[in-house]
User: What shape does this take?
Amino acid sequence: MQFGAAPDWSSLLEFDRRALLGGEVWRLWTGHLVHYSAQHALIDLATAFIAAIIAAQSFGALRVLAALALGAPLVSLGLLLAAPHLAHYRGASDLAVLLAVMAGAGLWRRVNGANDTRAASGRLVRSALAVLAVTLAVKIGAEAGGWSMGGSDLPGDVVVAWQAHLLGAAFGAAAVLACARCVRKAM
Amino acid sequence: MRYARTIKTLILLLTILSVSSCATWRSHRGATQAASMVDYLYPDAKEPPAMTPTVVKLRPPVRVGIAFVPGKNWSDNFSEAQRMRLLERVKASFSQHQYIGKIEIIPSQYMRAKGGFANLEQVARMFDVEVVALLSYDQVQFNDANALSVLYWTVIGAYVINGEQYDVQTMVDAAIFDVQSRKLLFRAPGTSQVKGSASLNGFSEKARAARIDGYEKAVDQLIPQLQGQLDGFRERIKNDASYQVENKAGYKGGGALGWISVALISLLAALAYAVRRRT
Assistant: This one.
């Protein structure tokens, strides 16, 4: 993991629009592994790790890893297209959002599919998941409007790339649909 | 006998007239086209401008305007479309850099002769640019007749003999100014020499094409020089306290979640624990 203390390595691995268009394709993946500060990395990676464990309980570790391996370059390609002014990008928050969407959808399915008499508690969990989903949507909307909650210790000239979060959420939803189809076929 | 002498005299007179008229058909003086940066930016300056130490703030991606300095006699030989084509080539050389945002080509109509920085600021505001690349030029055309021009007396020789020579020497200079601080950031020159010959009849057309070719070739030489100066400038400002570089919002992005996400993921983990216990 590279932080601000090792600028050469970070520069070599970050999402760099010009370098990417020049053929440095590894940045499609590695741009999500480098961060601007230790705090930035800690929050992103801890969130992604917890979300990955929860998602793996519903979809399996292999599917979660496959979603990450495919989602990382797709989000980077999406940034190339959707954020033309974004020249540099670092962070794993988009993958954390992708995993969180998978984790939330997995929990929703598990509660929905449970054949038990504790329907009230199931409704409570689904309500909480809905609140979480709305909060995530509001958060991304606020970031798009220029509002940032802070806490990631970003340098002054770096803004939160809300497009990455939106793309992460979209690819997370796509991964859930793809996994659901796989499960149905297997059955 | 007397009749023959009259005819001889007439032929001689006709020959002298023809040869002398050839000489008066065209001037051998040449032509000059020039647009001076100093004349444009400091018109009627009697005293040197005061130098006040300022910090130049550059905020990439920088918005750049490109324009020719207004000059004399330019429109006689060079159309606006041709000028635009030259500016497009300079624009293309700038656009490959990620720290340069939009690039606007400023048409000549917006540039006022001897307009000074006041005109430059007006234009920069109008086109929403922070930095302007001003192209000045100086082109001199020398005309000479070579030995073959003696054959013009045959009249047809004026159409088929390349007895006229031209030598077009051009210099185009690009100076990049920060509009707000009025500071020259860097500059790069490009020069060219185009030589050729033409018949008396086709001289004007060929010389005009040579003048245009002279600008094209000078710009060909200017572009790599400009790239080199731009790279040098980027390195220079890293250690120069009079320059301050601040990225514009959106230039660098971070996928940052913040404290609220820690709260959200904690709640998700609690829900996962609850679901795990009930199933």
